[in-house]
Amino acid sequence: MPLLEIQNLHATVGDKEILKGINLVIKPGQVHAIMGPNGSGKSTLSYILAGRDGYDVTKGEVLFDGKDLLSMPADERACAGLFLGFQYPVEIPGVATMTFLKTALNAVRAYRGDDPLDAMQFLNYVRERAMVLNVTDDMLRRALNVGFSGGEKKRNEILQMAVLEPRLAVLDETDSGLDIDALKIVAEGVNAMRTPERGMLVITHYQRLLNYIEPDHVHVLAQGRILQSGGKELALELEKNGYGDITGAEAA
Amino acid sequence: MSRNVTKLLPFVDEVQVSRPDDAPWTSALRQEGFNRYRESGLPTPRTEAWKYTNLRRLAGMNFAPNEAAPEGVAIPEDHLVKIDGFRAVVINGRFQANLSDLSGLPRGLRVEGLANMLRKSPALLEPLLGRIAIRDNRPLTALNAAHLDDGLCVFVEKGVVLDKPIHIVSIGAPCGDEAASFHPRLLVSLGAGSVATIVESHVGKGAYFSNGVAEFVVGADAVLNHYKVQEESDEAYHLADTTLRLEDRSTYDGFTFQSGGVLARNEIYACLDGENVDCRVNAAYLGAGKQHIDNTVFIDHVKPGSRSREVCKGVLDDQSRAVFQGKILVRKDAQKTDGFQLNKALLLSRGAEIDSKPELEIYADDVKCSHGATVGELDADALFYLRSRGIDTVAARNLLISAFVAEAVAEIQSETVRDAVSDMVQVKLEMRHEGRVNER
């Protein structure tokens, strides 16, 4: 069974139609990349998958593990194994990163029927994963994302993914705002999570990230539709020729 | 005052101004209180200071005549601030020696019931009792004085450093089927260079009206930590007037947490009557249902070089309402004053309301004073972010609410009390949620 199946998805924000019939199937173990120009609907797609308010799905459906994803509230989607890595992680003053991680992990564990981790187990569990991503104890002690640099925020997103161990990770412009060193750390963190069971949907504007996270499939999203799909070589073509060829060809 | 305005004069039918064992000044104090109260009546919204807090419903209630404290009242341990310390229990304004734990009081510390002390050592009280609380335009303070009877006294001699807090547990309970009314008094005097921590837990059951007056003198170089938790019953009226006289180089760290009562007003007048005083008057509150919670603070900078800080943060749900009135007065001689005031409210429901009135009145020319006030609602982006990590809506909201309140709670200088209050906020939020679920 596919992990994710998006069928003819149409969505509007207010009166404006943003997604105009998206079809996409992700199987366990696959990494798909969605590329596209600004305003093509990439972030809208990721938010709709994660269950953010403010979008109206007017047609189509999304199956996650065979279940109707769109009828599930946002927190249940996360518990069921869907993870969204935010393009702009939210700063939350007063909520310590560790408290947040513990609350989230134990919520997800409870959904799976696992006992909560005690303080010591949890600390070891997080530290092990934090080390790989170069997330310091100091960052873990601070309020969630408050005063974090762009790179720290993105590393913190990947840490959350590593802690929650989702079945499908949607990474929205995880490369934006990263220098090359930070990008490598983030990509290594993501690659360490590639398993035959887990799927990934990497959303990006630039091909650069895909040098480090190699996708199995690449899709071009523009004007609310997937206009072209191919292997990883499609990303290189786009890098060379830009999006103009594809979007223009469609218009002609 | 125009003739056609009816004065509200409840609570004084039974007043006994002079009593058999009185020292002359005690009767005089009651008489003065009685006269002043009769002059003004219960405050109404026509008075500026009471514009947003209406006592009409209180005035219309029936109360039992002033009697002895009801028997067999249990101490609701779960609702008290969880700290180890000496414990003084007051039920309906009357000190209860048998329920208190004042064993092993160190030398230089005296904690006693006021009625007892009025009988035994009135001379010690005469220069302080009723001399600190302001007398003008305080009808409820006057009403309290008219009923002067019992309460608690704390005397810390100069140079004495207390390592254990004094926990005042004030319990309200109805008299049989009738609501109770009481007018307790707290008098605290810290000698020069002494250090003390006083925690007040106000709790209760059923309907009652608590009209407390507290007077604090903090001597030169003394340090007082004073933390009050108002968790009265949901039918209770809690009106409290606290006056502080802070002398040279003294430090006052005050914090009030309010989440109880149907109507509560905590009024603080801090007189920075010395140079280089450090005064912190912080507060947090959680309102729900139809609760009305008022924090009124007046900080009076009299002499040069003092600092005052006031952070008040509250969360209002349902149709609850809060009032914040914060005034900083910097008198002509109070040069180099540093005053800071911040008031933030979080509204969780369309029906909730906050009335916020910050005021700065400055007569000195070399001062630093600032104030800020904000009103907001829960951040939808933050809520979604938490939910996208598997945290359900209720838990996510509670996380954000406690984070909001935490900024004020963090002002508490005593770590043990800070942790205890922080836990109470958490418990309260969870209880309120469970209450809602059960109602459905």
Can you characterise this structure?
The complex is a heterodimer of chains A (252) and B (440). Chain A is α/β, with parallel strands linked by helices. Chain A has one domain (4-251): Rossmann fold. Helix content of chain A is 40%, strand content 28%. Chain A has helices at 42-50, 74-80, 97-112, 119-132, 137-141, 150-164, 180-192, 208-212, 233-241, 244-251; strands spanning 4-13, 16-26, 31-35, 56-64, 67-68, 82-85, 92-96, 143-144, 168-172, 199-204, 217-222, 225-230. In chain A, strands 6-9-10-3-11-12 form a 6-stranded mixed β-sheet, sandwiched between helices. In chain A, helix 7 links the parallel strand 9 and strand 10. Chain A is globular, with a radius of gyration of 18 Å. Chain A starts with a strand and ends with a helix. The model of chain A has no long low-confidence stretch (mean pLDDT 94). Helix content of chain B is 20%, strand content 38%. Chain B starts with 23 loop residues before the first helix and ends with a helix. With 440 residues, chain B is α/β, with parallel strands linked by helices. In chain B, the strands form 2 sheets. In chain B, strands 2-1-5-8-10-12-14-16-18-20 form a 10-stranded mixed β-sheet, with helices on one face. In chain B, strands 3, 4, 6, 7, 9, 11, 13, 15, 17 and 19 form a 10-stranded mixed β-sheet that branches. Chain B has one domain (24-378). Chain B has helices spanning 24-40, 56-59, 114-120, 122-125, 139-146, 380-387, 393-409, 415-439; strands spanning 86-91, 94-101, 109-113, 151-156, 166-172, 180-182, 185-190, 195-204, 208-218, 223-230, 237-246, 251-258, 263-272, 278-287, 292-301, 307-316, 321-330, 338-347, 353-362, 368-376. In chain B, helix 6 packs across helix 7 (393-409) and helix 7 packs antiparallel against helix 8 (415-439). The longest helix of chain B is centred in the last third of the chain and has 25 residues, at 415-439. Chain B contains 8 helices and 20 strands. Chain A binds chain B through residues 50-53, 73-75, 77-79, 83-84, 86, 89-90, 92-95, 99-100, 103-104, 107-108, 111, 143, 160, 164, and chain B through 379-382, 384-393, 395-396, 399-400, 402-404, 406-407.
